[in-house]
Amino acid sequence: MDTALTRTPRTDATLAGVLCGMGAGALWGLVFLAPELTRAFSPLQLTIGRYLCYGAMAAVLIAPRWRTVFAALTRREWLSLGWLAMAGNTLYFVFLAAAVQSGSVAMTSLVIGFLPVAVTIVGSRDHDAVPLRRLAPSLMLCTAGAVCIGWQALAAPASGSSIAQLTGLGCAIGALISWTAFAIGNARCLARTSVSEHEWNLLLGLVTGAQALLLVPVSLLLDDWTRTATEWLTFGSVCLAVALLASILGNALWNRMSRLLPLTLVGQMILFETLFALLYGFLWEQRWPTVMELAAFGLVVASVVTCLSAHRRKR
């Protein structure tokens, strides 16, 4: 009886963490459609629009308790917010948007699909983490699923030029590196900060919005801002929707999950972003998934279940 009572809170926390990870993935998957919907605008313009909206929303939501939150932050935490905002938001989204517009959603999903492998390997070095050898089956299934996801994109003839495909691949790898650093750093910062997950997300929004403002003069020099009224309406709608759904709600769910799950399991949750991105891509293209894509779904689900099992056996 005592054993059952002591394990119940941990089991509930794990289930809640996984559900939060699924919710974050479902909202973040929408980000992959944004560059397709706003092809008239550059990745830098889309990044500025999204994060100006994110920063404005964050400022309004945090204003009532700004004094309390500000007093709880140290200089170290402000510095952490600065580089996390750059790595996980500004730089990551520029790379992702460029990868989708130069390559394709499928190819970008493939590269981003390796995030769980990178995060889990680094997280296995944390104190009291599940040993890497115990996670080997989950990592192999994850890798196999990611390969299946992008098989057709890599095997089929490229729809664009070779230079464009290579540029897209390079940008996708840049997004992979950038978000791996963010996922690890953000989880560790949340573990030591005294502010709530929601407040931390809003603070990230404020810092990211400030970075977006600094990028406006750069974009005015590099990009063409002459667009039709319809294109501006689409651009504004997409930026507002992505800021609210992905940045405010999605990040809040992810931060909550990061406090409920160990880093080795946090890495596996990133797979849901890939799965939902593919699902939205199928709906956008109005087609059914292929055999290889269905196999990828099965492998990714098996990877998460295997990882959960490894953590359950350790406890």
Task: Describe the protein in words.
With 315 residues, the protein is mainly alpha-helical. It has helices spanning 2-28, 34-37, 43-62, 66-72, 75-102, 105-112, 115-123, 132-149, 151-155, 162-192, 197-222, 229-260, 263-269, 271-285, 291-314. Mean pLDDT is 82; it is low at 1-7. The longest helix is centred in the C-terminal third of the chain and has 32 residues, at 229-260. The two termini are 16 Å apart.
Keywords:
315 residues; mainly alpha; 15 helices; 83% helix; globular
Beta-strand share of residues: under 5%
**In the residues, how many domains can be counted?**
1
Helix-strand pattern: HHHHHHHHHHHHHHH
Determine the structural class based on helices, strands and strand pairing.
mainly alpha
Note the total helix count.
15
What is the helix fraction of residues, given as a range?
over 70%
What is the radius of gyration computed over CA atoms, rounded to a whole number of angstroms? 20 Å
Pick out the low-confidence regions.
Answer: 1-7
Task: Give the strand tally.
Answer: 0
Look at the structure and give the mean pLDDT: 82
Largest sheet: none
Q: What is the first-to-last residue Cα distance? A: 16 Å
Shape summary: globular
